[in-house]
Amino acid sequence: MLIGDVARRSGVSARMLRHYDSLGLVRPTGRSHAGYREYSGDDIRRIFHIESLRSLGLSLREVKRALDDPDFTPSELVDDLIRQTRERIAAETELLTRLRRIDAAEPAGWEDVLQVVALLQALGAKSAGRRQRAALSSAGDVSVPVEALVEAALSETDPHVAGALRWALARSGDDGLALLARGLGSPAADVRKRAVQSIAEIPDGEATALLRDALAGPDVVVRRYAALALGARGVTDAVPTLIDMVVEGTNDVDAADALSALASQAGSADRIAAGLVGRLAPGALGAPGAAGPAARRRLAQALADIPGPTASRALADLAHDDDRAVALTATYVLGLRDER
């Protein structure tokens, strides 16, 4: 079969067949009387073998080795091809993500495209200072797509950069909430924590709904951040968790401040006071099973700004506590309440 016929039937161009011949991949078995290449059935089968191996990503050099070396084993080469393909897919996926983010920024011209690319690169820089400047710059005329901000916020370990990213997300409104909600379900505890911290700074009704969900979740750290944020928003569902924080000594000052703010709502003061008093002890103060001295001292401090007789009676009892530090704290707090 002449080269033109082979090209038509195999789909491999005559030019490529000549290239295969020059490389020694497929040498025609014979020549016609006029000197033209003639391919046998075995030659054509080899051509199809070459094309099959090329479809796997092998180079022509690797194809020749595979077909000509009787000791060749494909496993190592296939493993290498798998690795190369994965790397190529990762690189292409990263490029696709970057292109989508540039498109989401709706650039008006190439200058805008270049600015978005520069900001995206800066968000992934090794320098914390550069990442922070990129976050602070993201709310400019050409902003970073919110998806990139969320990704950066959920992975950022530097507290200053993280704060800048949360600020940028808060300025972007509720566009990133759906992505941050996914962060709340991450298997990584640090990601869940960063997600709730970011949501807490978005002053939006949908953010409040997400924080309510987080308050009922299994992650105690997430619940605590959600409770502090909800307390600042006047959501009384946060009260039990805030009281737990006071007792446990976890962000207890912030938790007490949130309880104080919530106590200003109609009908909330008595409920909060009862919750705090209920954690002091079953029975007499200082009895076995009661809250320890450190917890009683924190509870006394938390009761300081809770109005009403329930808080006052509890503080009066604490002023006679067996632990001197607790008694002094309660006495001091009572003095402040009397001056008001």
Describe the structure.
It comes from Nonomuraea spiralis. This is HEAT repeat domain-containing protein. Residues 1-69 form the HTH merR-type domain. Keywords: DNA-binding. With 340 residues, the protein is mainly alpha-helical. It is elongated, with a radius of gyration of 35 Å. Helix 10 (177-184) packs antiparallel against helix 11. It has a two-stranded antiparallel sheet. The chain contains 19 helices and two strands. Helices cover 69% and strands 1% of the residues. Among the domains are: 3-72, Multidrug-efflux Transporter Regulator, Chain: A, Domain 2 (Orthogonal Bundle); 234-340, Up-down Bundle (Transcription Elongation Factor S-II, Chain A).
Q: What would a concise description of this structure say?
A:
The protein is built from 19 helices and 2 strands. It is mainly α and 340 residues long. It has a two-stranded antiparallel ribbon with strand order 1-2.
Output the structural class: mainly alpha
Any idea what the shape is? elongated
**Helices and strands, in N-to-C order?**
HHEEHHHHHHHHHHHHHHHHH
Q: CATH topology of the domain at 234-340, which one?
A: Transcription Elongation Factor S-II, Chain A
Unreliably modeled segments:
283-289
Calculate Rg over CA atoms. 35 Å
- Please, how many helices? 19
Helical coverage, percent range: 55-70%
Question: What is the mean pLDDT?
Answer: 86
CATH top level of the domain at 234-340 is: Mainly Alpha
Give the spatial strand order of the biggest sheet. Answer: 1-2
What is the count of β-strands? 2
- The CATH architecture of the domain at 234-340 would be Up-down Bundle
Taking the sheet with the most strands, its summary is: 2 strands, antiparallel
Question: What portion of residues belong to β-strands?
Answer: under 5%
Q: Termini distance?
A: 108 Å
CATH homologous superfamily title of the domain at 234-340: Conserved domain common to transcription factors TFIIS, elongin A, CRSP70
